């Protein structure tokens, strides 16, 4: 019953103490509140309270420093940490020091009540045995948006576990940063971090790259080759662009995940796979599964904990913080220190950022290197973004989205006609122009198999056949 449960609150902000006390009291809990860490420590020492809700920054002591001491004398005591700092490091430290949950300020009262209810209903989290040797105050992930806070909390929980993780997101969102954070702050941080990009390795060499090979296993194998699984022993193996892995390698990887061991190419002796796997992709793997291009059983083996990185356009409130962070990194690499005017920051927030954080970082380095003024204004930012958005030769940009590419081509098409109205039935013409390459590529990806192509496109098979006839697209049969 909640009437018998006592919540201890520690926060130096009187308004927060009042709001939390009233909300928890209305929910049926007994509440004691204090503004100091020393008073909280005395209550915990005396055996009071069933759960602690504590701030990080208090006048006499940091709540994160107090957390391990509380867990040592009261390992069954559940602790919820809240902080206005809202950084990745804060979330990780809270998890590694035994907190049940971390809540960034400001938070929703309903969310807090839900966390309290869950904390009192579940077994306590004991202090991790390897607390010493924590990473320093580096910030591999930057942002205070709601989306990023949820990612911080997920990654923080995973630092005390050894689960396989699947990171998805557009190019430039920072998928490898997530993988490195999981490694650098996790149980395997003393081991190696090894990354391999599936899209950058020739198909015929992927198995050798992953699992190694014996001398003479194939033409050109003059010596034994050590694969990435062996290189990453005791650490983390990051499989980037996993959606580009060929079918044969998918089968071998699935076997490794199932059995926990592998054999080198040309070898017979099994080798224990002592790695944590973090996979990443920008592709929709479920669509690839429907098209028969990715194994469903492998997907579920890799997708134990999914993490989706939002594109920058979905977290525009993080752009000023990221921009300052990248300017500081530029200064650390030897470029002049720069700052941005408020108008420049607002202009950055209005940009669509098809290249995401990578595009923003490149822009910041360019501004730091090319502009003499210490404070960069809106005009300079607008000029650089205009150059990126509208290339003079009409050529596509590597980071351009499909929508932007279509719009760019339509602008060129319209500009070729003085009155701006080139033809009638423009809508139908544009749709057919987009459908042609889409259907051609879908059939190419599925080797002419119309059933798989229809599944990939999300169309009925008969609908696909009609579209192929209407667009007069030839179909090469029997390729699958």
List segments where confidence is low: pLDDT < 50 over at least 5 consecutive residues.
126-137
- The Rg value, from CA coordinates, equals 27 Å
Tally the beta strands.
14
Give the CA-CA distance, first to last residue.
63 Å
How much of the sequence lies in strands comes to 5-15%
Largest sheet: 5 strands, parallel
Classify the secondary structure makeup into a structural class. Answer: alpha/beta
The number of helical segments is 20
Physical arrangement of strands within the biggest beta sheet? 2-1-3-4-5
The percentage helix is 40-55%
C-alpha geometry: globular
Average pLDDT rating: 83
Protein name: DNA-binding transcriptional regulator NtrC
Domain Response regulatory: 6-120
Organism: Sediminicoccus rosea
Domain Sigma-54 factor interaction: 141-369
Describe, in plain words, how this protein is organized in 3D.
The chain is globular. Helix 4 (88-96) runs parallel beside helix 6 (146-158), helix 10 crosses helix 12 (296-302) and helix 13 packs across helix 15 (356-370). The chain is an alpha/beta fold and 480 residues long. It has helices spanning 14-26, 37-45, 63-73, 88-96, 109-121, 146-158, 175-184, 206-211, 228-231, 247-259, 285-290, 296-302, 319-332, 342-350, 356-370, 378-389, 402-415, 426-445, 450-457, 461-470, and strands spanning 6-10, 30-34, 51-55, 78-83, 101-104, 165-168, 193-197, 236-240, 261-262, 271-272, 276-281, 305-308, 339-340, 375-376. The longest helix is centred in the C-terminal third of the chain and has 20 residues, at 426-445. Residues 126-137 have low confidence and may be disordered. Strands 2-1-3-4-5 form a five-stranded parallel sheet, with helices on both faces. It has a five-stranded parallel sheet with strand order 7-8-11-6-12. The chain is built from 20 helices and 14 strands. This is DNA-binding transcriptional regulator NtrC.
């Amino acid at each position: 019953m909640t009437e018998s449960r006592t919540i201890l609150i520690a926060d130096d902000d009187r308004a927060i103490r009042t709001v939390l006390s009233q909300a928890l009291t209305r929910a049926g809990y007994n509440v004691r509140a204090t503004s100091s860490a020393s008073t909280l420590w005395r209550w915990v020492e005396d055996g009071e309270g069933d759960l602690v809700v504590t701030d990080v920054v208090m006048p006499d002591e940091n709540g994160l420093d107090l957390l391990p001491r509380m867990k040592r004398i009261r390992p069954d005591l559940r602790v919820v940490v809240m902080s206005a700092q809202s950084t990745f490091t804060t979330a990780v430290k809270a998890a590694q020091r035994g907190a049940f949950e971390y809540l960034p300020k400001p938070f929703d009262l309903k969310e807090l009540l839900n966390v309290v209810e869950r904390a009192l209903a579940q077994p306590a989290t004991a202090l991790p045995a390897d607390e010493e040797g924590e990473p320093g105050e580096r910030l591999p992930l930057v942002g205070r948006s709601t989306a990023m806070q949820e990612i911080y909390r997920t990654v923080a929980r995973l630092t005390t576990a050894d689960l396989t993780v699947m990171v998805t997101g557009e190019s430039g969102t920072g998928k490898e940063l997530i993988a490195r954070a999981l490694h650098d702050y996790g149980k395997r941080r003393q081991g190696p971090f090894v990354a391999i990009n599936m899209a950058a390795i020739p198909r015929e060499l992927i198995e050798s790259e992953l699992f190694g090979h014996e001398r003479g296993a194939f033409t050109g194998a003059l010596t034994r080759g050590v694969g990435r699984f062996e290189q990453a022993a005791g650490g983390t193996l990051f499989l980037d662009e996993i959606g580009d892995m060929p079918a044969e390698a998918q089968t071998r990887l699935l076997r490794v995940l199932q059995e926990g061991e592998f054999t080198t190419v040309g070898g017979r002796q099994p080798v224990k796979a002592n790695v944590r796997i973090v996979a990443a992709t920008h592709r929709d793997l479920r669509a690839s599964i429907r098209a028969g291009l990715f194994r469903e059983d492998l997907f579920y083996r890799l997708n134990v904990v999914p993490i989706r990185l939002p594109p920058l356009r979905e977290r525009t409130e993080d752009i000023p913080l990221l921009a300052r962070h990248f300017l500081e990194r530029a200064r650390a690499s030897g470029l002049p220190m720069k700052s941005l005017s408020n108008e420049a920051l607002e202009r950055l927030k209005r940009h669509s950022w098809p290249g995401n954080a990578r595009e923003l970082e490149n822009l910041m380095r360019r501004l730091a290197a090319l502009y003499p003024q210490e404070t960069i204004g809106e005009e300079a930012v607008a000029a650089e973004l205009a150059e990126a958005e509208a290339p003079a030769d009409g050529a596509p940009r590597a980071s351009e989205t499909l929508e932007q590419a279509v719009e760019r081509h339509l602008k060129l098409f319209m500009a070729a006609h003085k009155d701006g109205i080139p033809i009638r039935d423009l809508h139908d013409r544009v749709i057919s122009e987009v459908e042609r390459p889409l259907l051609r590529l879908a059939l190419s990806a599925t080797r002419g198999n119309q059933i798989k192509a229809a599944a990939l496109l999300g169309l009925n098979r008969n609908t696909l056949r009609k579209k192929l006839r209407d667009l007069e697209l030839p179909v090469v049969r029997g390729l699958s």
